[in-house]
TrEMBL record:
GO molecular function: isomerase activity
SUPFAM superfamilies documented for this protein: HAD-like (SSF56784)
Keywords for this protein: Isomerase
Protein name stated in the entry: Bifunctional phosphatase/peptidyl-prolyl cis-trans isomerase
Pfam families given in the database record: Hydrolase_3
CDD domains: HAD_HPP
Length: 257
């Protein structure tokens, strides 16, 4: 079989609801690698948040922070930071509305408040500890993604006030803040361009709203059975639930296993 490139989202795709990798997923990814395919991760997480997972699966290539920080075989390939001045403006706007803000680079995540219920609830759903407090972190470091912790009904006012940013909801109490051109699709485009790979030889698995552009961009988008309807509509295929051998069954569905 001709060499293919396959991208996997993490939460709800590689990880099940308990943040565990199903045995069938481990076996499927190992087999893809044995067959000589390029295997990569495409996630909203920062690289430090899935270091152990990369080591567990033997994956050195990834599109992280929803496409803003791209690495191929351990080497930085594409960086797309947020504008510091604009980030300062939106932080002030969020503070007026009592909405905490998180700043994320490749190495860490800091929040501008020391404690808040919205942060505990949303970050806790990822099985991550509460981030440390540093309100000026974004002034001293290149930030590739921010997060604003606010209810769904407040998202529209941010989109209206700051059209230069892209806002992607991933939790009822939190949304990602990306550059206007930011997406997993853009990050994948940067990687396959560098590799000289055609979109028709690219596959992607995902389940969340931040996967919609990715699944519609690649030649073969596969939505997990646990994905939202909007995600399934963007995909070419729908596999079974993550806990029902979704990755393995999806790879069989598209003929890669």
């Amino acid at each position: 079989m001709m060499k293919k490139t396959i991208f996997f989202d993490i939460d709800g795709t590689i990880y099940d609801e308990d943040k565990v990798v199903p045995a069938s997923t481990k076996e499927a990814i190992a087999e893809l690698k044995r067959l000589g395919h390029n295997v990569a991760i495409a996630t909203g997480r920062a690289s430090y948040m899935f270091k152990e997972l990369r080591e567990e699966l033997g994956i050195d290539s990834y599109v992280s922070l929803n496409g803003q920080y791209v690495v191929f075989e351990g080497k930085e390939l594409y960086l797309n930071p947020l504008d510091t001045g604009a980030l300062k403006e939106i932080t002030l706007f969020a503070e007026k509305n009592d909405h905490p803000v998180a700043y994320i680079d490749a190495l860490d995540m800091k929040v501008n408040v020391a404690d808040h219920e919205y942060i505990h609830t949303s970050i806790g759903s990822l099985k991550l500890a509460f981030p440390t407090h540093d309100a000026e972190y974004f002034l001293q470091n290149e930030i590739y993604q921010a997060m604003i912790f606010c209810p769904q009904e407040n998202q529209a006012m941010y989109a209206e006030a700051y059209p230069g940013f892209k806002f992607v909801r991933w939790h009822p109490l939190c949304m990602d803040v990306l550059p206007g051109n930011g997406s997993k699709a853009n990050g994948i485009a940067q990687m396959i361009k560098a590799l000289g790979v055609s979109k028709e030889d690219v596959y992607a698995f995902g389940d969340g709203l931040n996967d919609v552009e990715m699944l519609s961009f690649v030649g073969h988008g596969i939505a997990m059975g646990n994905a939202e309807d909007e995600v399934k509509a963007a995909a070419s295929y729908v596999t079974s639930h993550v806990s029902e051998n979704g990755i393995y069954e999806g790879l069989k569905l598209v003929g890669l296993l």
